[in-house]
Specification:
The protein has about 260 residues and is α/β, with parallel strands linked by helices. Helix content is about 35%, strand content about 20%. The chain has a seven-stranded mixed sheet. A two-stranded antiparallel sheet has the order 1-8.
């Protein structure tokens, strides 16, 4: 097993078990040849990605030492190893309008932000395979009705099928995290656009889940400029609604406001 340097300031714990690293890479199932690895560190996943002839892998990391190490190790592929912050990086510089899959052992403290950026490029990203804190992974894959179901669950499930693949224990990381981790796979579904006002859809989801203990009758008041709105979802809480339910609710609010 390879021991790698820890970047505690990034909230990242580095995988040291090569069998698990290989299993993560093998979890990529789409036919997309462009693969973007986020946060490669010392390259425990990168080595298997570069060995796969059907992939053109690009690795991006904010740590200069990691980038220097990888560029030295893979001198012939150094142009595919980039210093940069994925959250602010213009991915069109790499892929223009081409599709690209995303993979990584994501730093825990920015994993949700990574997924929000994936959503910004959802029509280019057919698949994501990533390691997350176990609780976050469970939340993303949770169905309606679950206590773990939340904002990102709905927003991602609107456009992706989410599969919880396997749990990863603490002892295969350096440094060992205080929590278990898990690998999930997101596979793009056929929805190009939601059948509603997508901006309002997102606002409603965020507002209702930020007050998830309240019934929707109370949390939807900011979206209603007058009284009289009635709907069968008003006595429910947000975790009880599916993506399709939120689409229906969004359309009902728009129709009410336009009367």
């Amino acid at each position: 097993m390879a021991v790698v340097k820890a970047k505690k300031n990034l909230g990242q714990h580095f995988l040291t078990d090569l069998k698990i690293a290989k299993k993560i890479v093998e979890s990529l199932q789409s036919n997309c040849s462009n693969v973007l690895e986020i946060g490669p560190g010392m390259g425990v996943l990168t080595q298997f990605l570069f060995q796969e002839p059907s992939f053109k892998t690009t690795a991006i990391d904010v740590d200069r030492e990691s980038i220097a190490y990888l560029q030295d190790k893979y001198e012939d592929l150094s142009d595919q190893i980039i210093y940069g912050d994925f959250l602010s990086y213009d991915v069109s510089l790499l892929y223009a309008s081409e599709p690209f899959a995303v993979i990584g052992n994501f730093p825990y403290n920015i994993s949700s932000q990574i997924l929000f950026k994936v959503l910004d490029h959802k029509n280019q990203v057919p698949e994501v395979v990533g390691m997350f804190q176990k609780e976050v992974a469970e939340r993303l894959a949770s169905p309606p009705g679950s206590k773990a179901y939340g904002i990102l669950s709905v927003l991602l499930q609107a456009y992706y099928k989410i599969e919880y693949l396997f749990t990863v224990h603490e002892n295969v990381f350096n440094p060992p995290p205080k929590v278990k981790s898990a690998v999930i796979r997101l596979t793009r579904n056929s929805v190009e656009e939601l059948a509603c006002d997508e901006k309002l859809f997102k606002k409603i989801i965020k507002a209702t889940f930020n007050n998830r203990r309240k019934m929707l009758r109370n949390t939807l008041k900011p979206f209603l400029t007058r009284d009289g709105f009635e709907h069968h979802f008003l006595t429910q809480r947000p975790e009880q609604l599916s993506v399709a339910d939120f689409v229906e609710l969004t359309n009902a609010i728009v129709q009410f406001q336009n009367k």
